From TrEMBL:
Enzyme Commission identifier(s): 2.7.13.3
UniProt membrane topology term: Multi-pass membrane protein
Keywords: ATP-binding, Cell membrane, Kinase, Membrane, Nucleotide-binding, Transferase, Transmembrane, Transmembrane helix, Two-component regulatory system
EC top class named in words: transferase
Molecular function in Gene Ontology: kinase activity
Signal sequence interval, chain numbering: none
Protein known as: histidine kinase
Chief location: membrane
Keyword field contains Cell membrane: yes
PANTHER family given in the database record: HISTIDINE KINASE, PHOSPHATE REGULON SENSOR PROTEIN PHOR
Originating organism: Paenibacillus woosongensis
PROSITE patterns reported in the protein's UniProt record: HIS_KIN (PS50109)
Length: 323
């Protein structure tokens, strides 16, 4: 109704101005019967009111659709045009909607093609990495060890690219099952033994063996790998420890990973999970990309887990995952 009145306001104003002018002309011509003039004004006003009521009733759905916010891009299609103006606007919106859908489909196809290319490229790169790793794993000289370390970094970088590309299509690549938490952590520690040796960090497992969680093993393994990599990377002192704790609390399973590293400055803590945020520590360690913790948070959210972080600069960092 408000939109209708705002649109018809000029018509109403012009009508009363015209009525006043006509009445004034008749008054100048000598017709000064006030009762007849008022009767004419009343009849004319009734005609105007009838026109406005008819106009509102026939355009009510159109005005309501303009006034209410759209819930989706195709929400206008349920409006039935009731006048030439609304019909023309409806045709225009449908035409723009078709162009929008066409462009959106084209862009979506390009993005999906790009993701397919990234996935294929990552898998192709993993093959020579595995071959080189087999060539140097039996060697114990410092050069071969350095090559193996760089291969580990390269493999983790490729995994990050792959999981980042798949994140938007997460629901197409998920398999939920019951996982033994201690077994999963021990297998991760074994897979990352070169990282622990290079960083001179010792893992300490304090977990109840019967604890299990419901999750996707592949995505959860990627998240835990990111957390372990960060913990070891920022533990500078030799013979530092990385604690893995798991326990049940209030009907939920908690997994804590606590390091004895340099910690996170208090000013950086609220932005740790932001994409591309490296913070003060990231500027000191050039390997930081600012994507590891962001991906961990996003994957945990999609899996239905919670990820919290506590840290004190100079004392270490504790990351808690709630299942």
């Amino acid at each position: 109704m408000r939109l209708f009145l705002r649109e018809q306001r000029p018509v109403i104003v012009i009508y009363f101005i015209q009525l006043a002018v006509v009445t004034f002309v008749y008054w100048l011509d000598g017709y000064r019967n006030a009762a007849v003039s008022m009767y004419a004004v009343l009849l004319s006003s009734c005609l105007l009111a009838g026109y406005l009521v008819f106009r509102y009733l026939t355009h009510r759905s159109f005005y309501r659709r303009l006034q209410e916010p759209a819930e989706s891009i195709g929400d206008f299609t349920d409006v039935k045009p009731s006048s030439p103006l609304s019909e023309s606007l409806h045709r225009l919106l449908k035409s723009q909607y078709r162009h929008y859908i066409s462009e959106l489909s084209g862009q979506t196809e390009k993005i999906e093609g790009h993701i397919r290319f990234i996935n294929q490229w990552v898998h192709q790169m993993k093959t020579p990495i595995s071959v080189i790793h087999l060539m140097v794993q039996q060697e114990s000289d410092s050069r071969s060890v350095a090559i193996a370390d760089e291969l580990d970094r390269l493999r983790k970088g490729l995994d990050m690219v792959l999981y980042t590309a798949r994140l938007d299509q997460f629901e197409h690549d998920i398999y939920v099952e019951t996982l033994g938490l201690e077994k999963l952590v021990r297998s991760l520690i074994t897979a990352q033994k070169r990282l622990f040796i290079r960083g001179k960090v010792f893992p300490v497992i304090e977990m109840e063996p019967q604890l299990s969680v419901v999750s996707d093993e592949k995505w959860l393994t990627f998240v835990l790998t990111q957390l372990i990599t960060n913990a070891v990377r920022y533990t500078l002192r030799e013979n530092g420890k990385l604690y893995f704790r798991a326990y049940a609390k209030n009907g939920r399973t908690m997994l804590e990973i606590e390091d004895e590293g340099i910690g996170i400055p208090e000013s950086d803590l609220p932005r740790v999970f932001d994409a591309y945020f490296t913070g003060e520590n990231g500027r000191r360690f050039q390997e930081s990309t600012g994507m590891g913790m962001y991906l961990a948070k996003e994957i945990c959210w999609k899996l239905g887990h919670e990820l919290d972080i506590e840290s004190e600069e100079g004392r270490g960092t504790l990351v808690r995952m709630k299942f």
